[in-house]
């Protein structure tokens, strides 16, 4: 039982939960918010299961006070959320929409009042649609410059009241699924465009850091990447090659440039070769020092044959007999330790937050009015045990964020997969704290009793 083995977690360990703007906020047309690429993508029939959109989602934009009170009730140290760029700057550049910015001011103040540290992500996939039309989104270098301006606007307003600023969440998804593979907006299927988008996302990250440092000198600054160990499905050379190239693409194409290793040759197509040859200055910008790396982990993947005609990264195969979540993902806690070791092998001194980990299950409200989700509790407990092992090995893991606080809009999967530790009835917007959330609250309380922490100092007012 984890509650009996909380010793490895240091007193400063941050216990949190996360969400993102488009997945929970709703109020898509309220207070001057501009459309994002996800608003447009969701309007095309067939793109999202069940025809779901983020128009209402969890109605968090209007219910944030109650949601923060609920987080406080669970004893969370930190809340990881994202900011909607098009709510703050509807056109992507230029005029700032004060009511949009004020929402995040109110949210951050509410969190601070509740003793919860705000961890803000600037970009969780919802690019202003105007920038897609104007510059082709992340294919355009100007989008990276616009991101730095947006980072400046938001960090001027919120500054050090945000405890940790994350530039991007999972830029692999934005670039490779959006531009290379086409399952996410803008829906392009061109590997060279995927590479260009990923380079510009990294450039945007580096360009934003000086503004974050100067507007929020006491806050931590970092980026969140997704990781999945990739295993060849057999000893066949083609399967081994498939796994190797997918590993480079998924697990290394961002961490390499960020930490001075550069891009792996395997990751680069012919057009992007030309782009990257002239990108030496960019590489210096991308390597701007950061305080932490966010690591998101859910599962591992078994891969077959890179020459498979449908998927250039190879064909994913199921692990026979494996336990799976409602996403079809194998439950494989060891992969989290593998991931933390792999990150630590690249940069042993970088502080790591596990910024996402969690599981979707087909939760239902029982006759007793509760949501009993033992599979999720078991998943979280097993993965936290791997975090404890990593810390025991000396890997500097500083915090853990359950994905997700709330059941929410799961992108192309719509509202079917429920990732929350809090159930959301999407008809009534009623929240029900699931058993897994109660377990998480008990775990946090047990750790606090074992290792009390000094209160968070109030931010200095300018
Ligand atoms: O819901 C997503 C989140 O937005 C990004 N990381 C993976 C989660 C589960 O698919």
Concise structural overview:
The chain is an alpha/beta fold and 462 residues long.
Describe the secondary structure blueprint for this structure:
Elements: E1 14-18, H1 21-24, H2 37-43, H3 60-74, E2 78-82, H4 85-88, H5 98-113, E3 117-123, H6 129-135, H7 141-158, E4 164-169, H8 171-180, H9 191-215, E5 220-227, E6 230-232, H10 237-252, H11 255-258, H12 270-277, H13 280-286, E7 292-297, E8 301-304, E9 315-317, H14 334-346, E10 351-357, H15 374-392, E11 397-403, E12 422-425, E13 430-433, H16 435-450
Parallel strand pairs: 1-2, 1-11, 2-3, 3-4, 4-5, 5-7, 6-8, 7-10, 10-11
Antiparallel strand pairs: 8-9, 12-13
The chain binds 5-hydroxymethyl-3,4-dihydroxypiperidine.
How would you portray this structure in words?
The radius of gyration is 21 Å and the shape is globular. It contains 16 helices and 13 strands. It is an alpha/beta fold and 462 residues long. It has one domain (2-450): TIM Barrel (Alpha-Beta Barrel), CATH 3.20.20.80. It has an eight-stranded parallel β-barrel, surrounded by five helices. The mean pLDDT is 94. The structure holds 5-hydroxymethyl-3,4-dihydroxypiperidine. 5-hydroxymethyl-3,4-dihydroxypiperidine (IFM) binds at residues 20, 23, 170, 296, 356, 403, 410, 419.
């Amino acid at each position: 039982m984890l509650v009996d083995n909380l010793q490895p977690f240091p007193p400063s360990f941050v216990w949190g939960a996360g969400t993102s703007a488009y997945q929970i906020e709703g109020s898509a047309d309220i207070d001057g918010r501009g459309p994002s690429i996800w608003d447009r993508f969701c309007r095309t029939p067939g793109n999202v299961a069940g025809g779901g959109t983020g128009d209402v989602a969890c109605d968090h934009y209007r219910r944030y006070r109650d949601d923060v009170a609920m987080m406080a009730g669970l004893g969370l140290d930190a809340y990881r959320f994202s900011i909607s760029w098009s709510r703050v700057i509807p056109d992507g550049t230029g005029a700032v929409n004060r009511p949009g910015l004020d929402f995040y001011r109110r949210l951050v103040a509410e969190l601070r009042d509740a003793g919860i540290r705000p961890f803000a992500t600037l970009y969780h996939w919802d690019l202003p649609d105007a920038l897609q039309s104007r510059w082709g989104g992340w294919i355009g270098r100007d989008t990276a410059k616009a991101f730095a301006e947006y980072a400046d606007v938001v960090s001027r307003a919120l500054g050090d009241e945000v405890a940790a600023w994350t530039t991007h969440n999972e830029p692999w998804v934005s670039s490779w699924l959006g531009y290379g593979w086409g399952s996410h907006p803008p829906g392009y299927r061109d590997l060279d465009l995927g590479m260009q988008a990923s380079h510009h996302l990294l450039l945007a990250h580096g360009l934003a850091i000086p503004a974050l440092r100067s507007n929020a000198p006491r806050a931590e600054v970092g980026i969140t990447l997704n990781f999945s160990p990739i295993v060849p499905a057999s000893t066949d050379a083609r399967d081994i090659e498939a796994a190797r190239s997918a590993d480079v693409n998924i697990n290394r194409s961002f961490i390499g440039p960020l930490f001075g290793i550069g891009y792996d040759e395997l990751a680069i197509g012919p057009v992007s070769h030309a782009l990257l040859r002239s990108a030496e200055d960019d590489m210096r910008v991308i390597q701007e020092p950061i305080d932490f790396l966010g690591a998101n982990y859910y599962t591992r993947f078994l891969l077959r044959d890179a020459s498979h005609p449908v998927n250039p990264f190879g064909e994913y195969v199921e692990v026979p007999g494996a336990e799976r979540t409602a996403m079809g993902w194998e439950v494989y806690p060891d992969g989290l330790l593998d991931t933390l070791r792999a990150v630590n092998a690249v940069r042993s001194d970088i502080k790591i937050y596990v910024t996402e980990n969690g599981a979707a299950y087909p939760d239902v409200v029982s006759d007793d009015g509760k949501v009993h989700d033992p599979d999720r509790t078991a998943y979280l407990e097993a993965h936290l045990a791997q975090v404890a092992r990593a810390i025991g090995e000396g890997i500097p893991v500083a915090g853990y964020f359950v994905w997700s606080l709330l059941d929410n809009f799961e992108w192309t999967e719509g509202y079917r997969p429920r990732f929350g530790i809090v159930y959301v009835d999407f008809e009534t917007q009623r929240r029900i704290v699931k058993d897994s959330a109660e377990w998480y609250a008990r775990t946090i309380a047990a750790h606090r009793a074992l290792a009390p922490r000094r209160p968070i100092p109030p931010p200095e007012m300018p």
